[in-house]
Specification:
Blueprint: H1 7-23, H2 27-41, H3 48-64, H4 68-79, H5 85-101, H6 105-122, H7 125-141, H8 145-161, H9 165-182, H10 185-191
Helix pairs in contact: 1-2, 2-3, 3-4, 4-5, 5-6, 5-7, 6-7, 7-8, 7-9, 8-9, 9-10
């Protein structure tokens, strides 16, 4: 459909192919198909929500591939197309995670703080937990371990309230590291 310039069908099938590839962890192929879908979209009037969805999915794939600058770019492109506070909160949380792994700590904290405020106002406790984790993680790598422990405790509470025990458990593992760094090995083992 792409070669035939049948843009509506090309777009539809490229998005489907990209989503299937992402679901199968064929991340290189997913990036390829998302890029082609975005190219096909230049010939169509797609909604901002469609464009944002593709960019967000592409950002997730780049994140999984540890391609953090590309993930950051994709999330920022998605951010320009969303209109709701809930979407902004979710994208800012994802952006903050990519920024932290790209070692852009100040930008990660800023994005996470924005996500946290918006997520709490929209009732997205899982998004708030992810954002609170990023704030804590930045503080952890900067050696502010007391504040890290408070952030992680808040993040675990939010994750559990959101019904996300796996996320809460992951955050507790990082919290255990802060106790390990302090030399409080028994507490660290209990946390992990």
């Amino acid at each position: 459909f792409h070669r035939a310039e049948d843009w509506p069908r090309a777009f539809e099938y490229l998005v489907k192919a990209a989503d299937k590839a992402r679901g199968a962890f064929a991340n290189g192929e997913a990036v390829y198909f998302y890029d082609r879908a975005l190219e096909a979209a230049t010939h169509l009037d797609i909604t901002p929500q469609q464009r944002a969805g593709i960019c967000e999915s592409k950002g997730q794939v780049h994140f999984c591939r540890s391609e953090f600058p590309e993930a950051i770019d994709a999330y920022r492109r998605a951010f320009t197309a969303v209109t709701t506070d809930a979407d902004r909160a979710r994208l800012n949380a994802a952006l903050s995670e990519a920024l932290v792994w790209a070692h852009e700590n100040n930008a990660a904290t800023a994005a996470a703080t924005e996500a946290l405020v918006a997520a709490r106002s929209t009732g997205q406790l899982d998004v708030a937990a992810r954002a609170q984790f990023v704030v804590g993680f930045v503080q952890m790598v900067q050696g502010q371990l007391e504040e890290t422990t408070r952030c992680y405790a808040d993040a675990v509470t939010l994750a559990r309230a959101a019904g996300q025990p796996v996320l809460g458990g992951q955050i507790e593992q990082f919290d255990g590291m802060t106790f390990n760094w302090r030399g409080e090995y028994r507490t660290a083992i209990q946390r992990v």
